[in-house]
Amino acid sequence: MTDTGTTDTGTTDTGTTGARTTGARTTDAGTTDVAVAGGGLIGLAVAWRAAQRGLSVTVVDDAPGTGASEAAAGMLAPVTEAAYGEEALLRLCLASVQRWPAFAAELEAASGTPVGLRTAGTLVVGFDADDVAALDALHAYQCELGLVAERLTPSATRRREPALTPRLRGGLAVDGDHSVDGRALHRALLTAAQAAGVRVVPQRVAELLVADGRAAGLRLADGSVLAASAVVLALGARSGGLPGVPPLPVRPVKGQILRLAGAAGLLSGTVRALVRGRHVYLVPYGEGRLVVGATTEDRGFDATVTAGGVHDLLHDAMEVVPGVSELELVETLARWRPGTPDNAPLLGPCGLPGLVLATGHHRNGVLLTPVTGDVVAGLLADGALPELAAPFTAERFTHR
Ligand code: GLY
User: How far is the CA of 256 from the centre of ligand 1 (A)?
Assistant: First the structure.
């Protein structure tokens, strides 16, 4: 990739944004092939892969891993997250889940950090007759798509996870849906990316710079300028709000999530449940830890952890696994999934040359981390977006 060689001199034409900043004293933050705005899982995976392809890469983030990545439960769940009308997304999710074992092994070797890949599969359980009817409908849809899922009786379900309530009415085993420890994954990616030569600048991204009708770099919060041949936008739910970025259909979808301790041996794999129509999931990780999630709320960037949210999650988790009541509640957190109108990510080029999207991963950020790193780095290094990602460019929203 050729370098733009552009540096800020204190007078910046922001091109298509129409904004012009004059006279600001700026410090040069350097020049890079690829500037990645956002050091969450997605930004770091892109950075790591791009550096492996020989590009110079700079990630800018004042608090890497404290957005959606911090809240993520770590499910790798293309089958149990499959939803009607989202078959294109499902294909991308399946392509990514296949990459996970090799991705985890490579990342662990590169970083020396275990990412906690669990391959014990996922159980989906239903609590009352309506929940079981929904389970049957989900199973029928999964079978129609050729996905592997086995309908289980209540006793067969409990044989797999004895901590489940005897009151459950039915189950579904999805042996191919796994999980990782999302926070360990972030640590590993940060280490691996830096070991591969990625520079991480601990600054808030203030603005996308545009010159001559193309993305030319980033202005950082201290006023300095990072000049880049290409800019990757990986700011999660905040991607559309960065000054200079063209309008993007990304919105925050709030999720409240809990972490519990003392759960060693309670569950072997992920349990997802429908409890009188409400969804809850329990994901074991680390040394006896359990994530319980998550609410889904359209409330903008509201970070409040509410009494009702915590109550509902704990209530439903205890209905499904009564032993949860004995665990220590160690953390509550609210963050924002980057939602899009069709729940699928925005990958690759957009209307602004030089700006590459890696955002909008909504419920599937952890799952889609490997494939996003591969396809976006492929675009950056080869100049062409791999075919697999073609349905996920922003163009799908401009031609509706
Ligand atoms: N993928 C789980 C969630 O978004 O809550």
Answer: 10
73 alpha carbon – ligand 1 mean position (Å): 7
> Do 141 and 41 share a structural domain?
no
**Ligand 1 within 6 A of 68 CB?**
no
Which run of H or E residues covers position 320? helix 307-320
Q: How far is the CA of 216 from the centre of ligand 1 (A)?
A: 34
Please give the pLDDT value at position 22: 36
360, 176 Cβ separation under 8 angstroms = no
Q: What percent of the chain has pLDDT over 70?
A: 93
Nearest protein Cα to ligand 1, atom 1: 363
CA of 364 to the centre of ligand 1 (A): 7
pTM for the model: 0.93
Angle between helices 369-382 and 41-52 (to 10 degrees): 40
Q: Please tell me the residue having the least CA distance from ligand 1 atom 4.
A: 363
Instruction: Give the domain CATH number at 358.
Output: 3.50.50.60
Asked if residue 294 has its Cβ within 6 Å of ligand 1, the reply is: yes
* pLDDT at residue number 398: 85
Task: Give the domain range for residue 215.
Answer: 7-69+184-250+342-398
Residue 81's nearest CA partner among 275, 279, 278, 249 is 279
Residue 323 belongs to domain with CATH number: 3.30.9.10
339 CB within 6 A, ligand 1 = no
> Considering only CA atoms, which of 272, 263, 386 is closest in space to residue 327?
263
Tokens of 216: 């030319």
Nearest-CA residue for atom 2 of ligand 1: 363
Whether pLDDT at 15 is above 60 = no
Residues in the chain: 400
The answer for residues whose C-beta is within 8 angstroms of residue 37's C-beta and 6 or more apart is 43, 60, 61, 205, 208, 218, 231, 232, 233, 234, 235, 242
Q: How far is the CA of 252 from the centre of ligand 1 (A)?
A: 13
Q: Is residue 31 part of a domain?
A: yes
Q: Please choose, from the candidates 319, 283, 322, the residue with its C-alpha nearest in 3D space to the C-alpha of residue 128.
A: 319
With beta carbons less than 8 A apart as the criterion, state whether 13 and 19 touch: no
| DSSP at 213 | T
